[in-house]
Amino acid sequence: MKKRKNSDAFNDLHIRVPFVLPEITNEDKRVILATLNQNLLTDGPKLKEFENKFAKFAGAKYAIGVSNATAALQLSLKAIGIGKGDQVIVPDLTFVASINAILFTGATPVIVDIDKEDYNISIDSIKKSLTKKTKAIMPVHFAGKSCKMHEIQTIARKNNLRIIEDCAHAIGGKLNKKHVGTFGDAGCFSFYPTKNLTTFEGGMVITNSKKISETIKTLRNHGITKSYQDRFTKGKPWEYDVSIPGYNYRLDEIRAALGISQLKRITQNNLKRKKAALYYNSKLKNIKSIITPKILKDEDHACHLYVLRFKKQGKFSRDDLFTKLLKNGIRSSVHYKPLHTFTAYKRNAKIFDKLINSKQIYREIISLPLYPQITRKQQDLVLKNLVIKH
Ligand SMILES: Cc1ncc(COP(=O)(O)O)c(C=O)c1O
């Protein structure tokens, strides 16, 4: 089979270090082709197998495959009863999909500040932003680092709140050996091409609640009470009910098969990511202008992104660093432009407090290339370009 070119998604041939590099192996290609011979192309045996294996991998009772993580978040919120009039707390530093999912339910997102140390949702801000309308918290395990879930659980317990974890960055991420996504009511994962495991597009919900699992299974399939397979194996195919208007958020068999194949490599690939991240850290720890991400040796950090803080050097800013890296064939990015800066959320969300940390941190962060296949030579080239000479 033909090998993909070792260039990034934009096919820039001068790029020596792409930002991400999805890994589709020959075995991945083989399983994709094999599913083309199945009779059921969606809602079939591969989906069931992927769900079972993912649930086992994450230590959850149930896993429900869906079309992407945005759908996973929306359906999880709906399954716990979030809707109009409710408030859901979300951190300012996350991808727009987190807040969009809240808005799709009709609820009001409440944007809160982040923690200065790990860039995850600030526990203090959660506490201060609580109102009578607060119904849920959506922690996002930013860059693959687990949020302070025990503190969040305590707040939720005291105030009768639900928790939906956005684990898009954190496949394989654990806190005290317990997989993220199992602390709250549900955890939502993304298999978008930049993620640690990809099915091109795809997502998964994990939960220990049978009720949530059943509701999401129904909602992902138009609200129909029987799966496609069940319709043809259990009684008359047209004899089903629609208990609640649902969506088409299914995960097809090709993607599910690819997911099973990728899942076999996730632990090994995450270790490679961590090794590369710790290498950056070891080389950058004594540079005054740089604050490296906190990744502990014995921590199960999913190392999805390598996000460092770059303090302005004279007139040389984070944006100048981005341009310098690009000129030298290195792609980098910024995760993320904070939610409060977007027109749609200025209008439709509640912005809590001054968001001091996220505003400052946003000006200084830069994400460097990080993926299992990154070479020492590529990392050394990145590192060489991080030293700013005046
Ligand atoms: C933090 C976060 N949440 C949610 C999503 C949405 O994932 P998807 O593209 O699978 O809908 C992403 C995707 O990039 C993300 O980074």
TrEMBL record:
GO terms for biological process: polysaccharide biosynthetic process. GO terms for molecular function: pyridoxal phosphate binding; transaminase activity. Keywords: Aminotransferase, Pyridoxal phosphate, Transferase. InterPro entries: DegT/StrS_aminotransferase, PyrdxlP-dep_Trfase, PyrdxlP-dep_Trfase_major, PyrdxlP-dep_Trfase_small. It comes from Marine Group I thaumarchaeote. It comes from the Archaea. Belongs to the DegT/DnrJ/EryC1 family. This is DegT/DnrJ/EryC1/StrS family aminotransferase. Pfam families: DegT_DnrJ_EryC1 (PF01041). SUPFAM superfamilies: PLP-dependent transferases.
